[in-house]
Amino acid sequence: MTPLSPPTDEELTRRAQAGETGALGLLLARHQAPMRAVALSLLGYGPDAEDAMQDAALTALRRIGDVRDPAAVGAWLRAIVRNSARMRLRATWETPGLDDLDHLYPCDHEPSHPERVVERHAMRDWIWDAVEELPQRLRLVLMLRHFSGITSYHEIAAACEIPVGTVRSRLNQARAKLADVLLSTAEQAHDDASVLTEDSRQEALVTLQGSVCGSLPREIAELWPAETELLGRLSRPGERTHPIPAMRQNLDAGVRQHLRHVVASRDITIWEMDVTNPPGAISPCPPTLAWLMVRSDRRVRTLRVVFPEPTR
Q1: Is position 109 within any domain?
Q2: What is the pLDDT of residue 84?
Q3: Is 184 in the same domain as 202?
Q4: By residue range, what is the domain housing residue 121?
Q5: Are residues 16 and 158 in the same domain?
Q6: How many domains, in total, are found in the chain?
Q7: What is the pTM assigned to this prediction?
Q8: Is residue 269 domain-shared with residue 164, that is, in the same domain?
Q9: For residue 291, what is the enclosing H or E element?
Q10: Residue 2 falls within a domain, yes or no?
Q11: How far is CA 117 from CA 111, 120, 144, 186, 251, in A?
Q12: What pLDDT, on the 0 to 100 scale, is given for residue 183?
């Protein structure tokens, strides 16, 4: 009996673009060695090369639909690693790994075909289901680094109150575990990740509106029980602080927040805000901030208000 030939790169790429997540896992495994060689040639041996490899693999998960020559997917994967490595060499601060290469791979400007929409959603749901499998401490740094605007190691360290070296270590662990989970769950059905995000977005809008009106709806107020604790710069040192009084204090000072972006998992929620200050404010609030919430049964256990560094 003639042995079956392994699928070509072109076949695997087309299957991955059609939403077959297992095919994408096979592609990444097949091209792991040449991708690592590119990273090592530019960054040498060390954590930066591993970071570039891991970021490139996650970018490929998001962008496989943009490959226009499926037979040349290997060159496409190596280019992602090369660009990721070069950005590390040029950057004066760390940049996120999932979205920083978007401008390098232009998409068709034609209206999206239904199958492309399905494929993108399938990949998104697959990735988010894998993210949910990570331990909370690893999931938090990964969500900040790759899905929020709080992307530098120093910002993540401040948000999580851990050393920068621990941020790097946890990110490496998170990416390695994520890769394992992705490969082991490629053939499974996955929940629609957009539902959780949209629910969180609506909750944020109602929370902001209710705060301005001076009264939170009962279903929202129940998410902020008496044991909820405010952490970080807005808390009062040496005593337990509930977030609601701090919110009211800022509102009374004329500070207004406007929802810009939501990142949500089952027990970690990130709301990123744009901020407007009243005219002539003596100590204005920074122009952006983020609510970093840890939850239990939807109720907020802790809230930390994070002030990201301004974009350079």
Answers
A1: no
A2: 82
A3: no
A4: 9-104+114-190
A5: yes
A6: 2
A7: 0.68
A8: no
A9: strand 288-296
A10: no
A11: 10, 5, 26, 18, 41
A12: 63
Q: Is residue 73 part of a domain?
A: yes
| Cβ–Cβ under 8 Å, residues 305 and 291 | yes
Same domain, 245 and 175: no
Q: How much is the pLDDT for 123?
A: 59
Are 149 and 93 contacting, i.e. CB atoms less than 8 angstroms apart? no
Same structural domain for residues 42 and 185?
Answer: yes
Of residues 159 and 103, more confidence is placed in 159
Cα(first)–Cα(last) distance of the chain, in Å? 63
| Exposed/middle/buried for residue 285 (C-beta within 10 Å: 0-12, 13-18, 19+) | buried
Q: Which residues pair with 122 in a beta bridge?
A: none
Residue spans of alpha helices (H) in 135-289: 136-147, 153-160, 164-184, 193-213, 218-221, 243-252
Task: Tokens for 146, please give them.
Answer: 């790759």
To the nearest 10°, the Cα dihedral for 151, 153, 157, 159?
A: -10
Question: Could you tell me the pLDDT band of residue 189, with boundaries at 50, 70 and 90?
Answer: low
Question: DSSP per residue over 248-276, as a string?
Answer: HHHHHTT-EEEEEEEEE-SSEEEEEEEEE
Work out the average pLDDT over 233-254: 85
